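Because discrete structure vocabularies remain unfamiliar, we reproduce here a specimen of the format, pairing a chain with its fold in token form:
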Amino acid sequence: MKLVSTVIGLLLLMIVPAFGQTIGPPVSGIDLSGSWFPGRHQDPGLGTAAGAMVDWGGIPLNDDARIYALSWNASRITVRQQQCAGYVPPYFFYAPGNYRFWEDRDPNTQRLVAIKMYGQISEGLRTIWMDGRPHPPAYAQHTWSGFSTGKYEGHILTVQTTHIKRGWHRSNGALQSDEATVVEHFIRHGDRLTHFAVTTDPIYLTEPFSKTAVMLRSLRDPFAFLYACDDAEQIVGRPDDDIASYLYGQNPFLREYADKNKVPLLGALGGAETMYSEFPAKVRDARAADAAANSKLFPSGPPRASRAVDPDPHDGEIHVLPVQGNLYMLVGDGGNIAVQVGDEGPLVVDTGAGQLSDKVIAAIRKLSERPIQFIVNTSFHPDRTGGNVKLQKAGHDASVVGSFFSNQFADAGQGATVIGHQNVQDRLSALTGAAAMPAIGWPSDTFLSGRRRKHHNGEAVEIFHQPNAITDGDSIVHFRRSDVIATGDIFSTTSYPFIDSKNGGSLQGEIRALNFILDRTVYDHDEEGGTLIIPGRGRLCDEWEVAEYRDMLVIIRDRVQDMIRKNATLEQVKAARVTADYDDRFGAITGPWTTDMFVEAVYTSLKQK
């Protein structure tokens, strides 16, 4: 009996460890599950309120980011679209509330699929995918949390995040652009978690920006985890195009933080030099330091080209992105195309530049076996109408054959019905030479004002004319059940708006059109989701990006208007670089629509009123 017991004991010693190990290579990683709260052991004043105005030392801001920050007025937070903005990484971990982390595992294999991170303030939810999936294409939607993938490097969780909305390094004007990417490292030591993040931002930083935070594990589950936000009218009667900002050189808080804390202004203005130990020696000469600081208060140099990634793949293919409901966005032919599918034939908004029309038709046929029934043109511009002729011929609208309206259409039933504002038809029919389009591609179903409405593929579709925005014939299309708006050229994520003054466009009309869109959007949670926006060019968006675009145009308008009141000439306005803080994101120095052309259109539009 003693011998048998010994043998069983030896077998247990051999078997039990085997069951405690994974077949294959040794597993590394850490378990972050549980409730956490910020330790606030460093930068205690840089949480949600983000410290004082003009306190940007240690952030490698470039000149354009500094101009943006100096123009930023805290009253802008009272604008509806700013009141419930979420938190982007790494700022996500500088909120004062509680956090909860947990693992998401495959119910069958128990393999780790994702790590979830929930933050009380703004009720932010991050998903860190651990299953090796790729990041989305550049034309996909951005969110507050971005798209994160993670991997274990020993006992460190390393996370890479892309597709982040425009947010903050510090919410006192030091912005993080929507082109930023973040690499984070989570290192756990018992109940203490160190978070080390490195942000790379080609738009507003001159070099990577690293920062750390410490979190402590709560030994009991905190009761406070909700922090819902709904916007409200905070200033009664304020026009929608009133966006608070400081004109160049007029920030009243410029020296407040520096003087109060005996910090050289040059240090408070930030920049890469303020990150390094050599900086104190540079400011020992107070007069020279002040002179250097004053040189940073106004934009200098020529306009810059955008450093943003072009979301168009430019690979000669048409890419299809599901939006929501029964809407899809087609990317690749010079301008975004919206396609609604259902039991009836597809309804197509805009037809692209016409270079890849055969592939556009093939992509639509994969979405629906029925022929295209309707085409809506949001403008007469070639990136909206270039594929009209081919897509019209590839379609069929049986609803007009033999109907009351069939006598109005010479081509009734011979193809898709093209819909547009009357001015679109007028402009297309007036084109001559190489730009001329056969009449079959013109809108034959036109309207004059207000809206053209339909009920198609099971939902209400409203086409709203936007007078004197980009041109005098622009429209937006709202798919009400899917809750998707196609904006045409009124909104773009890749450039300043092409205000076509010669064809009835105006800056104020463009701002009104953007506010019209915002009057119809509803976010799902904290300025995210809900109504989705298909721009004329660029990535899929929601109302946050439209509001940011509107705010930018209002701020630029106010700068130019101020100079016009002072009798500035066009050349003086251009020399003042009134678009400086946005050029790295939207500017162009070559091509069909440059920053100088945009500024001239703004100036001309405001002079003519």
In short: Confidence is low (pLDDT under 50) at residues 7-26. The chain has three domains: 34-217, 256-294, 319-542. The first strand starts at residue 34 and ends at 38.
